[in-house]
Amino acid sequence: MSADQTKERILDAAERLFAEQGFDATSLRAVTAEAGTNLAAVNYHFGSKSALLPAVVARILVPVCQRQLELLDEIEARDLPPTLEELLEAFTSPITDLFEQGRRGPVLARMFARIMGDPGDEMQRMTMSEVGDAEERYEAAFARLLPEIPPAELWWRFRSIGPVVVSRQIGLQASPDVGGPPTPAEADAVALRAWTMTFLAAAMRAPATVQAPAAVTSAVLANA
Amino acid sequence: MSADQTKERILDAAERLFAEQGFDATSLRAVTAEAGTNLAAVNYHFGSKSALLPAVVARILVPVCQRQLELLDEIEARDLPPTLEELLEAFTSPITDLFEQGRRGPVLARMFARIMGDPGDEMQRMTMSEVGDAEERYEAAFARLLPEIPPAELWWRFRSIGPVVVSRQIGLQASPDVGGPPTPAEADAVALRAWTMTFLAAAMRAPATVQAPAAVTSAVLANA
DNA sequence: GTCTATAACGGGATAGAC
DNA sequence: GTCTATCCCGTTATAGAC
User: Fold this and answer.
1) pTM of the model
2) Could you identify the residue whose CA is nearest to the C1' atom of nucleotide C14?
3) How do residues A113-159 score in pLDDT, each as one tens digit?
4) Residue B178 to residue A205, Cβ atoms within 8 A
5) pLDDT digits (tens, 9 = 90+) for B187-214
6) B40 and A CB contact within 8 Å
7) Taking a C-beta distance cutoff of 8 angstroms, is the pair B204, B157 a contact?
8) Tell me: the pLDDT tens digits for B137-195?
9) Closest-CA residue of chain B to A216
10) Angle between the A3-21 and A49-77 helix axes, to the nearest 10 degrees?
11) Residues of chain A neighbouring B112 (CB-CB closer than 8 A)
12) Given A114, A116, A218, which is nearest B167 (Cβ)?
């Protein structure tokens, strides 16, 4: 078997198992068994177990961000400014598409959630380096579209888009007896995109909060 | 040392370590070292490592839900129906309060995020049994307040509240060099509550999505 | 490049004294 | 109830044959 094939098979197996069971709970033995190789191959190709994780994450994230940027390019190539819904759709649909990929998608949503809650900056730094470009450009695009929202408040609104999309995808998987969705998951998947768009568009468009920002408050207090 | 004291000390240590490092990555040896006891004590009081996790989670969640229910009782004891903002505040403030508890709070946000993304229904079932009551009553209260939103769509809106609150708390902790918030965390903490309220209130209040629900669509297709 | 075999280690659980 | 000492297992990583 060629080197590239072995590497890909290891990544496939690792992605599935990490997503399903978590990184710590997954042994290299399980990965190599599923990949049809052996322990030594992982260490040869990736160096160690911990080095396998960034490789898996990058392989997932890179195409998503590429697609996000492509869609943004298309939007910005036009003359007229985009609608908020268009911008949201361009940002979220590559993520949703990923999650709706047959049987690969669903488990990935959980992997994302795990990454977001992971301790230590290591994982977040890793994720950032892949996602940074797309995030910056979209944030700027939202800022142009919503000039009346102060940048600090808009920053938080923008960062809530991902969690909402990811958490809803996870909710879609929950079985009804542990508090899953009220209607069949297949039917919901279609409606869910539209409902999520409604939810996020309204939230992004909300008038700026009137209350004085805390930064100002504390500056005033400091001078008192 | 009394039995209760030992038990509490183990729970304290486990809570901190699970939240900081994750469940799998935390060894019982680390827990007992911090608790000032030994391995056998954990197995005596809790039976096993896996049985320690539910105990830790329950100790965190129970008071939060109690407070949520108290606040809802106060609101419903009045004659006039609550505003959406009041209801949101009552639901979210016990969570936010938890996260703002000195040095205990911040790590707990990550523990929550991890739980939400955890595979297997085990953890989610455990969480549900603690949280179920409060969730049901609040969902009903929101439904009364927003009768024009179809229940299925409202269900998803309501389930997004938690993820938004939790993810923002995690964002508050991120250091600026990994994409943390633009302004100092201390100043933001105050403003953040108000901004989050603006965001969520607008999202909850959004007019119902016009598009036909997928359930209807697929029923029509099935009859074609 | 790939594999087998093994080294070196740390984990959870438990028996049994106190 | 609490502790020490120990068992036994699964883990990662690597040396060395092919």
Assistant:
1) 0.92
2) B40
3) 888 877 666 777 878 888 889 999 999 999 999 999 999 999 999 99
4) no
5) 678 899 999 999 999 999 999 999 665 5
6) no
7) yes
8) 999 999 999 999 999 999 999 999 999 999 999 988 877 777 778 766 656 788 999 99
9) B187
10) 90
11) 117
12) A116
How far B1 CA lies from chain A's nearest CA (Å)?
Answer: 33
Q: Cβ separation of B214 and A203 shorter than 8 Å?
A: no
Q: Which two tokens stand for residue A122?
A: 């290591």
Which residues on chain A are in Cβ contact (under 8 Å) with B109? 117
Is A155 in Cβ contact with B196 (below 8 Å)?
A: no
Of A151, A191, A208, which has the smallest distance from its Cβ to B214's Cβ? A191
Sequential DSSP letters for chain A = --HHHHHHHHHHHHHHHHHHH-TTT--HHHHHHHHTS-HHHHHHHHSSHHHHHHHHHHHHHHHHHHHHHHHHHHHHHSSSPPPHHHHHHHHHHHHHHHHTSTTHHHHHHHHHHHHHT-SSHHHHHHHHHHHHHHHHHHHHHHHHH-TTS-HHHHHHHHHHHHHHHHHHHHHHHS-GGGT--SS-HHHHHHHHHHHHHHHHHHHHHSPPP-SPPHHHHHHHHHH-
